[in-house]
Amino acid sequence: IETANAPIFGVDTNSCVTIWNRKAVELSGFTKDDTMGRPLTRDFITPEYQQKVETVLQAALRGEETANFEFPLIGTDNQRIEILLNATPNRDSHGQIIGVVGVGQDITLMRKAMSDSNQVAEDLTRLIDTANAPIFGIGANGLVTEWNRKAAEISGWSKEETLGKSLVNTFITESYRAEVWNVLQMALDGKASANYEFPLLTKDGMRRDIL
Fold first, then answer.
1. How far apart are alpha carbons 183 and 194 in whole angstroms?
2. What is the DSSP string of 180-211?
3. Are 4 and 27 in contact (CB under 8 A)?
4. Residue (of 18, 22, 16, 24) closest to 2 by Cα position
């Protein structure tokens, strides 16, 4: 336990720390002496997760294991360390439950990467929506997945009115449908088309030429 390459925590039946291995020290900055006998949830878990962690500990004290439970651990400088934990009952030589042992995994970097990725996606969505040019998006089946503000302004169709509808069959003049679908199919196959002009049908039946 002490030399394992994963943070391992242990508590007694009162949820006070009894095990805090080297990896837990390394991640949190708290030494074993800092933690022994102190309430795990109250002193080392962020407030919004304290009740959830206590629930997991109490379940383990009843003999119920919990796998892949995520919670944030508080470090010495109040940094937040994201832990993925498996909690199991700790039994004595007679099989009696005397506490809980949790084997964790530090997923802080993974969570940060996911958060950064989500931020990029949000920024991209915002950029698309506020662009000063009409932007349309479709899925592999040709149904509309994106219709930004400029597209709504030009066409008269709101985003809500277009999502999930066939771009070609609903918003392109009939004489151009086959040609536009071929261009879209090429794009779906990974082949870009530049400066392609097609007529878009507006909500009031007018034709707007789009490049």
1. 10
2. HHHHHHHHHTT----S--EEEEPTTS-EEEE-
3. no
4. 22
> Which phi and psi angles does 64 have, rounded to 5°?
-100, 125
* CA distances to 6, 82, 122, 154, 168 from 119, in Å: 29, 18, 5, 29, 32
How far apart (Å, rounded) are the C-alpha atoms in residues 118 and 46?
23
Please indicate whether residue 60 or residue 201 has the higher confidence score (pLDDT): 60
Number of Cβ within 10 Å of residue 200's Cβ equals 21
Q: What is the pLDDT of residue 137?
A: 85
Whether pTM > 0.70 for this model: the answer is no
Rounded Cα gap, residues 127 and 122, in angstroms: 9
23 CB neighbour count, 10 Å cutoff? 20
What is the H or E stretch that residue 162 is in?
helix 159-162
